[in-house]
Write a structure and sequence with these properties.
By secondary structure, the chain is mostly helical. The protein is built from four helices and two strands; from the N terminus they run E-H-H-E-H-H.
């Protein structure tokens, strides 16, 4: 397929993230993954070619070395903490574990 202006190339060093976005069986971070999938579907509906490319992490690749250095510098900056909500499956697992523990305590 020929690329044209407006087509999208998504490059990631996480093959598991790419696989998760491409699957229909989502088990974790369902809200995030389905949001990404919906966005990709909307883009493909307006005739955008979306290509995923796995690239090894910051090892000996020009540009990636610079990105790695920038990330190291950024890690020294002041930080803020943001509460990230647990996914449904994480909450379900925690509740199941607590219920099992309580059941054994009662018997």
């Amino acid at each position: 397929m020929e690329q044209k202006e407006g087509d999208i190339l998504i490059v990631s060093d996480s093959s598991s993230a790419i696989a998760t976005i491409r699957t229909e069986k989502i088990s974790d971070n369902i809200k995030l993954v389905t949001s990404i999938q919906a966005t990709l579907q909307c883009l493909s509906n307006v005739d955008r070619l979306i290509t995923f490319l796995w690239m090894p992490s910051h090892v000996g690749i020009q540009g990636n070395e610079e990105a790695d250095e920038a990330a190291k510098l950024a890690s020294r900056l002041p930080t803020t903490t943001t509460q990230i909500r647990k996914s449904f499956s994480q909450v379900k697992g925690a509740l199941k574990k607590a219920a099992t523990s309580l059941r054994y305590q009662l018997h």
